[in-house]
Write a structure and sequence with these properties.
Layout (H helix, E strand, L loop, with lengths): L2 E7 L3 E8 L5 E9 L11 E2 L1 H19 L6 E8 L5 E3 L9 E2 L7 H11 L1 H8 L8 H11 L1 H4 L4 E3 L1 H10 L3 E3 H4 L5 E2 L4 E2 L1 H6 L9 E3 L4 E4 L2 H7 L6 E3 L2 E2 H8 L8 E5 L3 E7 L11 E4 L6 E7 L3 H11 L1 H10 L3 H10 L7
Parallel strand pairs: 1-5, 5-15, 9-12
Antiparallel strand pairs: 1-2, 2-3, 4-7, 6-8, 10-11, 13-14, 16-17, 17-19, 18-19
Amino acid sequence: MSYLLGIDVGTSGTKALVIDSAQDGAVVGSATITYPLFTPKPLWAEQNPEDWWNATVASVKEAISQAGITGKDISGIGLSGQMHGAVFLDESDRVLRPSILWCDQRTAAECEWITQKVGLDRIIELTSNPVLTGFTAGKIIWLRNNEPELYAKVKKVLLPKDYIRLKLTGEYATEVSDASGTSLFNVKKRAWADEMLDAIDIPKEWMPRVYESPEITGRITDEASALTGLAPGTPVVGGGGDNAASAVGNGIVEPGLVFSSVGTSGVVFAYADKPVVDPKLRVHTFCHAVPDKWHVMGVVLSAGGSLRWYRDTFGDAEYAVARHTNRDPYEIIADEASAVPTGSE
């Protein structure tokens, strides 16, 4: 078996990719299933974790079919995905509410409370980053402050791709690159920051076990096999947060290398041999998906997301033209924009 499967739980959709490792990683099958993002109130951004799972099942089956193989031909599975989101589970692993996403901004008061409670210097010492609204810790405190009846039922908190891991393997697990973006993780020690959890009264048992990205975290269960077509017992490795995983694929695994990516958000990412904390806290310091390595990352929350909003809100004409010309609406928007003089605002 020379085939590997990657599953990326993105903000706009989940993508499954089958590669042939015997042919230098040639892509032999891929599929993407999209789903909505909900903004029930200003500054809120949520998704239904079951949408991720349904998209995972559908995209995996399609990618395997497109590759012309069976699940038994897959020798290993890796996960990547959007970071920072909070999936709250009860004692039966039921999802208690829609996931609060990385781009959600409702937690400003909670982040300020955490910072005052612990102290900024201590937070930087423990986590190497300030507590930001996008990160996971504030979301947990927000639930405690605003939906206490649901908070009382919480038994586990998982990141988006790690919820898919649970559905595939039955294991509560994450890996260091994704855990770095929770404000609850000691980036230097590559372990949960117990003092941080204790200081803001979040039970450590809510946190999943942490692995390095290449380590096996679980294996496909019989139930997941029946739904996806993957073979029972197929290993699932830690994987990585979306940008850490992308960095490995782009070869950003040596000092001096940097990449920039524009998706829903925009990112500049640089490799580091050791933890490097910006004294002005302008960039994040996270664990890399490469074992015992780190990275620094600058982020703007809405890059392609702004363009998608524009397309969906004002792009009726472009959609109509796209349907008749078999083109993507984004191409038409870009063509129109290219004709506008520079500096016209």
